[in-house]
Design a protein that fits this description.
By secondary structure, this protein is of the alpha+beta class. It has a 6-stranded antiparallel β-sheet with strand order 1-2-4-5-6-3, covered by helices on one side. β5 and β6 form a beta hairpin. The chain is globular and about 45 Å long.
């Protein structure tokens, strides 16, 4: 799925690790991502976290989308910062799931994101709802 994501590719988002229910992605904040306050625009931080969320909740053969997402911005980011978003599946129930994504600059947390997914077309190999 990430290989076909033109928006993420255009921003230089790259996968560091991908696995069932998990993902680690990275992105460098560029000068074009800075807002009028001289800090990284929150929309780009959200997009990085959302892409990690999408990678964690999609499984081969399934189509899973965001049903809800929210983000808390903890610290500003700046041009040149290398960000890493780490997504972790908390629980899947039926065709829904909850995921937490932490965005860091080095060891510093800059944002916390929570997403709720909805699987539109499940993979036949996935466990039955509730399983």
């Amino acid at each position: 799925m990430l290989a076909d994501d033109a928006a993420s590719a255009a921003l230089g988002i790259r996968a560091l690790e991908l696995g069932p229910g998990t993902a680690r992605l990275t992105m460098t904040v560029t000068d074009l991502m800075v807002n009028g306050h001289g800090i990284g625009h929150g929309g780009y931080v959200f997009l990085l976290a959302d892409t990690a969320f999408a990678c964690a909740c999609n499984r081969p053969g399934s189509v899973t989308v965001a049903a809800q997402a929210e983000i808390d911005f903890i610290a500003p980011v700046h041009a040149g910062d290398v960000l890493v978003a780490e997504a972790v599946e908390r629980v899947r129930f039926g065709r829904s799931g909850l995921y937490d994504i932490t965005v860091r600059r080095g060891d510093e947390v800059v944002a916390e994101f929570r997403g709720r997914s909805r699987t539109l077309r499940p993979n036949a190999a996935d466990p039955a709802p509730g399983g």
